[in-house]
Fold:
Amino acid sequence: MKPETPYNDLPLLPPPRGVIETVSVLRQVGKTAAAIGELKGLANTLPNPDILLNAVVLREASASSEIENIITTQDKLYKALSSQNSQVDPATKEVLRYREALLSGYHTLQQRGFLNTNAIVRIQQTLEENSAGIRRLPGTALRNAATGSTIYTPPNDHETIQRLMKNLEDYLNEEDGLSPFIKLAVQHYQFESIHPFYDGNGRTGRIINVLFLVMKGLLERPVLYLSKYIIDHKPEYYRLLQSVRTQETWEEWVLFITKAVEVTALETIGKINLINALFEKTQEKARLEKPKVYSKDLLELLFIQPYCRIEFVSERLGITRQTSSRYLKELEKTGILTSQQLGKETLFVNEELFDLLKE
Ligand SMILES: Nc1ncnc2c1ncn2[C@@H]1O[C@H](COP(=O)(O)OP(=O)(O)O)[C@@H](O)[C@H]1O
Ligand SMILES: [Mg+2]
Structure:
């Protein structure tokens, strides 16, 4: 197979069971399932599940975009999300579109209970803000960034791409007794190999990964920050995507993805424990030092995202702007919040939470 020849013969799923369901894979899958099970349970103990959802989705959005060299900071992202006045640069906008695509894909999944080609096309459209849809024109190839040489040319025949997508859709949804963690790896390889869009395939594929785990009931919400592991192992990620095709190294690929899920789930568990502890500590401090201002509802708002506008509190708590502003200023005196001026607007930052979420 020449790298320049469009791979219209990409085999349909499923791959032979023997090559993906090996002893080492099954051993890893056991560990992965345990970690994800623990994460699912723990995510329910948070004071407000939106806290984690917001934080993880934003981290996932920036990590997955970073794999494609779209770089911004958590600070810029939170400012753009919480302020009406901030100047938003193109990379930040693009990462926010990723967040939107992931969240709207999640809502579609909640309504329908499954993922199909249409849902996938909509995710990519939200991400790329265009309606090109599934590729019709030739010319898409994966190239080595340094040398420009072609590594892989995905199928280029429109009908073939559609047939492969239908096959992938069936594979995502059918119950075949195979562990969903193994299927996760298989479908991601296949999606990236079909490469159905002109652009955004890497990011759309990584959104599907997280949504797939939700679809299979392994997580209630898309709170797995999987792209972090991929960034940390980027050369291996690229190498393995390629060698499944050229050397049929399915086992290595499945091990890579299932391990990624385990490691990330364990990291996310650590994060939740830290958020819970910080919430308790902050709540205690507010209750002791500002009993007239303290309420659980107010504290929860300060944990939904680390940057808080006065209007956000007044809208959510149904209080006047003046009262809201006074509450936030009182909490600033205790050190729980720090105010920051952004144009004419004041933002109140929960710095400890920000520090915890940003790494
Ligand atoms: N050899 C390969 N075979 C299949 N997919 C690959 C290969 N190398 C990289 N990829 C996938 O292609 C993605 C890049 O495709 P692209 O459409 O540019 O996505 P994005 O616009 O999100 O960057 C990578 O993130 C990776 O997921
Ligand atoms: Mg790209």
Q: What stands out?
A: The first helix runs from residue 17 to 20. The pocket of adenosine-5'-diphosphate (ligand 1) is lined by residues 67-68, 142, 151-152, 192-193, 199-203, 205, 238, 241-242 (CB under 6 Å).
